[in-house]
Amino acid sequence: MDLGLALPQFGYSIPGADGLSWAATVEWARRAEALGFGSVWLADHLFLSIEKYGGAPGDHDALEPIAALAALSRLTDRVRLGTLVLCAPFRPPAVLAKQLAGLDRVSGGRLVAGLGAGWFEPEFEAAGIPFLSPRARLDILAETLDIVRAVMTNDGPVTFTGQHHHVAGARANPGPVQTPAPPLWVGGRGDRLLEVVAGHADGWNTVWAITTEDYGERLGVLHRACERAGRDPATVDLSVGLTALVGEDEADVARRYQRFREQAPAGTAPTEGLETWRQGRLVGTVDQVGEQLSAWSALGVSTVIANLGAVPFAVTTLDDLDLVAAALPKE
Question: 2-326 — its CATH code?
Answer without folding.
Answer: 3.20.20.30
